């Protein structure tokens, strides 16, 4: 039986539309409000933090921010917050490989007590296709911060690549519960969760559940290649199972949108055969 292969571009497509999990890289930081995980009594270090954090909030001065945080690291290599902010500065400059290293040091030096550091490390790992590292950090989040939805969400997200689809579904159910409990079940979150569910259900050949999930995420993700490819495959299989024309029409309309997309290969399109 043909096994539908979705595209790993999904992970990055979500991030290009939203900061789907932890920190929004456009967060505004205030030194007077920031709670340091690895504090220092050194006045000169506090001055550098002040310079760096102020610069971090300006797109024009992101590079200056990175230099300030790097100076802090040179003064004291045990200050996890300096590594974290260096990672933020590098992320805002699209230097994602370097950012992973600094987030990793931040998480390690913090001894795992910061959910923020773990979330950012996981998210940065996804940006460089290190799915294994991302999954590891999401699992740690579930263990260390079980009340937070991000770990469960991340396991669901990485399941699309790792292949443990049922585990992904069960974790997305938990993520939804946590979002609702935390009063953060927004339209964005609902759309993200249902998009991932739709892809996982497609892989599990639970096509009716897949279509229902996709339709709940259509408003935000209806033009995404992974949405369209998985939706087309699910509606096609529902048509084969039920012979209902509504599924045939939905599939054909979706294939029209996919036809000229460079990510879609002809051998995938050739799988769709509508014999009378």
Automatic annotation (TrEMBL):
<dbReference type="InterPro" id="IPR011990">
    <property type="entry name" value="TPR-like_helical_dom_sf"/>
</dbReference>
<feature type="signal peptide">
    <location>
        <begin position="1"/>
        <end position="22"/>
    </location>
</feature>
<keyword id="KW-0732">Signal</keyword>
<protein>
    <recommendedName>
        <fullName>Tetratricopeptide repeat protein</fullName>
    </recommendedName>
</protein>
């Amino acid at each position: 039986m043909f096994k539908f292969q979705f595209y790993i571009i999904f992970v990055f497509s979500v991030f290009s539309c939203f900061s789907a999990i932890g920190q929004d890289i456009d967060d505004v930081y205030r030194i007077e409000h920031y709670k340091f995980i690895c504090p220092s009594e050194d006045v000169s270090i506090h001055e550098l933090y002040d310079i760096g954090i102020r610069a971090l909030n300006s797109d024009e001065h992101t590079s200056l921010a990175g230099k300030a945080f790097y100076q802090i690291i040179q003064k004291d290599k045990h200050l996890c917050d300096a590594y974290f902010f260096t990672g933020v500065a590098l992320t805002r400059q699209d230097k994602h490989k370097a950012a992973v290293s600094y987030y990793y040091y931040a998480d390690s030096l913090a001894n795992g007590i910061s959910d923020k550091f773990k979330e950012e490390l996981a998210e940065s790992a996804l940006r460089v296709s290190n799915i294994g590292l991302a999954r590891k950090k999401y699992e740690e989040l579930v263990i260390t911060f079980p009340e937070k939805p991000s770990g469960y969400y991340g396991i669901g997200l990485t399941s699309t690549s790792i292949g443990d689809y049922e585990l992904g579904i069960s974790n997305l159910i938990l993520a939804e519960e946590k979002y609702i409990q935390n009063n953060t079940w927004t339209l964005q979150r609902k759309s993200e969760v249902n998009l991932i569910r739709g892809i996982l259900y497609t892989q599990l050949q639970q096509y009716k559940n897949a279509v229902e999930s996709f339709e709940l995420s259509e408003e935000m993700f209806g033009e995404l290649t992974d949405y369209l490819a998985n939706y087309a495959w699910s509606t096609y299989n529902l048509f084969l199972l039920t012979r209902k024309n509504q599924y045939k029409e939905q599939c054909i309309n979706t294939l029209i949108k996919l036809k000229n997309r460079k990510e879609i290969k002809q051998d995938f399109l050739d799988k769709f055969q509508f014999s009378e």
